[in-house]
Fold:
Amino acid sequence: MSKKKVVLAYSGGLDTSVIIRWLMDRGYEVICYMGDVGQGSDTESARERAMRIGASKCIVGDLKREFVKEYAFRALKAGALYQGKYNLATALSRPIIADAMVREAVRQKASALAHGCTGKGNDQVRFEVTFHVKAPGIKVIAPVREWELTTRESEIDYAISNKIPVEQTREKLYSIDKNLWGISVEGGDLEDPWKEPGEDTYISVKPARKTPDVPKNVTLKFSGGIPVALDGKKYRPVELIEKLNALGGKHGVGRVDMIEDRLVGIKSREIYEAPASAILYAAHTALEEMVLDRATREYKALLAQRYSELVYNGLWFTPLRESIDAFVDSTQKSVSGEVRLKLYKGSVSVSGRKSARSRYKLALATYGEGDVFDQSLAKGFIDLWAMPYR
Ligand code: ARG
Structure:
């Protein structure tokens, strides 16, 4: 009889490396899957490590383009920020990776899916909900939740005794998750909410005091809610994000330090870095202010909050998320135009905007020449407005 096969969400780190061996010990043939969402780590050496430990295959899937277009840009168009601050970079990456794993499991005729998430976080939920939706009935294994290697020391001992290569660098201080849309940093010193994050928590963003003294102006062009050009030059989505991450990071833009509420009920202190996203959200919001009517803006903001909760709580592949996206897409038809922004010492500010779909009418707004607003109508309007309360 052929061995039972499992597809493992593999990162190349210690946990998922140990998991390969742990699953092998339990009779599995282990197929590693690495979803490349722009984490920028060395996938080739991670692949080699997986094979050396004993994986039968290690597949690297390039998900970058799909991740930006079908996940990150949807969140941007919706204006989703979890608890008003977090752009959901990690949360958005889980469903796309999990979905790709399911497709791989079908191709490889695997009977199980595994991941390296702990039992305290959100990521386990995001992976497993996607597994359940996309491959109902498949076996799900979460070794870190059930194994006996409960401390880092015991895990390292296990690794050494099983000849699993452990990176000889100093113990990793933080738990870091990276992709094109942002970086999440947690653990270590950050667990003390009173403690100021050290400079070693700055991964892609420069601390303000190390940024240029001259502000940088950039102009972004949007078409249908999607950014398409920077300073007059067209970019493909992935390249645009890379470019803005570098620019924003250099000027200290896009850091968030927050305490958030995890789905499982724990509060946790998190640092996020998302320079491109911070710039794009500022620009996109500024453009919507100009082109959307008031009622749509207000209603859309309510949905944005709900959308952020769906994404955060692992409910990407659900009817409500898809329906909100349909609504959002319908609002985005008019979100075309240009926004000029200033990046300076950790801040991004909007300094100009224009659009052929603008609802800003100078002739109505002006206090100068050419005013067409009939002020005599205001009295009757206010009388009726107040009537019910009088
Ligand atoms: N708290 C964030 C979230 O739930 C980030 C989790 C990041 N994971 C990590 N290994 N650092 O989306």
